[in-house]
Design a protein that fits this description.
Layout (H helix, E strand, L loop, with lengths): L3 E8 L8 E6 L2 H10 L9 E6 L39 E12 L5 E17 L6 E6 L8 H22 L14 H11 L4 H8 L4 H21 L14 E2 L1
Parallel strand pairs: 1-3, 2-7
Antiparallel strand pairs: 1-6, 2-5, 3-4, 4-5, 5-6
Helix pairs in contact: 2-3, 2-5, 3-5
Length: about 250
């Protein structure tokens, strides 16, 4: 079994392969991570792994807790994740390749990364200034009828977009072309749909592309029906993802 050790960046969201991840890094443990990544030569990949948080907080408390005003805030690389960080994270995550790591004058960082490959979390090390993890790659198998399923998902996704735009009384931008490669389709739709983190995590760790597409087709039909019934349903902009604060 081939494994790799990478810095670990837990988030309250799921990163999918091919998707862009903007980060505003201000916590010291993650600032230390970015300083370490900057030591990597520019012609080599500067990578870290992103996992979704199952239980805990991605930002450590910055003030004495309530109701005890004398309680000391939690510090360290595993702050907010309990005595065993492995239990705080979902076990399948995604490697992120950084395109930009820019340090600001105040010591915080502006980071732009892109998801590349899925990985399975094997162990977490909290002995350093930031979390690191032992990871194994998770292969992406196509599964049965992935091509036909991708076509159906794209049609359903277009209907979903139209309903969502109508619910927000917005016009739908039609200029953007969607991909037709089944694996790319499956990840794009999973990232773009308005779903909770557990559902997105389920899609990320689907056993193969076809299984993910089948799940998405059911979700798209169900969500489109809900939006049709509730035209004032709020939803975030599908074309722009918010910056993750860490």
């Amino acid at each position: 079994m081939t494994t790799v050790r990478l810095p670990l960046f837990p988030l309250n969201s799921v990163l999918f392969p091919g998707l862009v991840l903007p980060l505003n890094v201000f916590e010291e443990r993650y600032r230390a991570m970015m300083r370490e990544l900057l030591k990597t030569p520019e012609d080599e990949p500067r990578r870290f792994a992103v996992v979704a948080i199952r239980d805990g907080h991605e930002v450590a408390p910055s003030a004495p807790g309530m109701p005890d005003p004398t309680a000391l805030r939690e510090r360290g690389p595993a702050a907010g994740f309990g005595p065993d960080p492995m239990k705080a994270f979902h076990k399948v995550g995604c490697v992120a390749d950084t395109a930009t790591i820019r340090e600001r004058a105040d010591g915080t960082f502006e980071v732009l990364a892109t998801g590349t490959t899925r990985v399975r979390l094997l162990s977490v090390d909290a002995s350093g200034p930031f979390l690191t993890a032992e990871l194994e790659p998770v292969a992406e198998e196509p599964g049965d009828e992935a091509g036909a399923l991708a076509e159906g998902v794209l049609r359903a996704f277009r209907q979903y977009q139209k309903r969502l735009a109508g619910a927000r009384e917005r016009s739908l931008a039609t200029g953007a072309e969607l991909p037709d490669e089944p694996g790319v389709v499956s990840y794009l739709v999973a990232a773009a749909m308005v779903l909770d983190t557990p559902t997105k995590q389920r899609l990320l760790q689907a056993p193969d592309t076809a299984s993910r597409l089948r799940d998405e087709l059911k979700l798209l039909r169900a969500e489109t029906a809900i939006i049709r019934s509730l035209p004032s349903l709020p939803a975030p902009d599908l074309t722009r993802g918010p910056t993750n604060l860490n």
